[in-house]
Structure formats: structure tokens, C-alpha cells
Amino acid sequence: MPYDRPIIQIIQECAELLTAINKTPFSRQDIIKLIKWKYNEVNNDTINPLIQGMTDNLRGGAPGSTGRNILHNVGRGQFILSRNR
Predict the structure, then answer these.
(1) Total-model pTM
(2) Domain that holds residue 26
(3) pLDDT, tens only, 26-65
């Protein structure tokens, strides 16, 4: 693994950081930019399905990420941390 922890955990940390700096709602692109800043080798096609599966009000996503309910979609491509986590 070219990164030091699971991508799901990295996505959650990015969402928490964006929230802490009052960048809400945030976009998929905001999360991807943060991840790529440190882990440039991670492909967008890996990140996007995980974000989808980690979002409480969206369907689909990568196996292993669904049901995590970390994110909540508030508009086309816009997210906040889920209140149900």
C-alpha cells in the first residue's frame, strides 16, 4: 500500500479538516486535492466510489465503504460531515 492508512480513513480525516477550517460544504474535488497533496499516486477512480459509499444519502459506492455514513450530500457534489456518525 503506497499510503500509511486506508483511503477511507484518509477521506474522513480530510472531511474533518475541511470542516474544522470552516470550508463547508466541501466538494469531492476539495477532498481529492487534499489527498493528492500528500498521496499523489492515489487515483481519482479509487477515491470517488469510496466517497459515494461513505455518504449517508447516496446509493452505490465501493464495497467496504458503504454504510459508513461519514458524509452527507447537501447538493450536487457538495458534502458536509454526517450528523449520524
Answers:
(1) 0.88
(2) 7-81
(3) 999 999 999 999 888 888 899 999 999 999 999 888 877 7
Question: Which burial class, exposed, middle or buried, applies to 73 when counting CB atoms under 10 A from its CB (0-12, 13-18, 19+)?
Answer: middle
Distances from the Cα of 76 to the Cα of 21, 25, 79, angstroms: 21, 11, 9
User: Rounded to the nearest 10 degrees, how much is the dihedral formed by the CA atoms of 13, 36, 54, 81?
Assistant: 40
Q: How many domains, in total, are found in the chain?
A: 1
Tell me if 1 is assigned to some domain: no
Q: Are 61 and 50 in contact (CB under 8 A)?
A: yes
Q: Is residue 15 part of a domain?
A: yes
Q: Is 56 a member of any domain?
A: yes
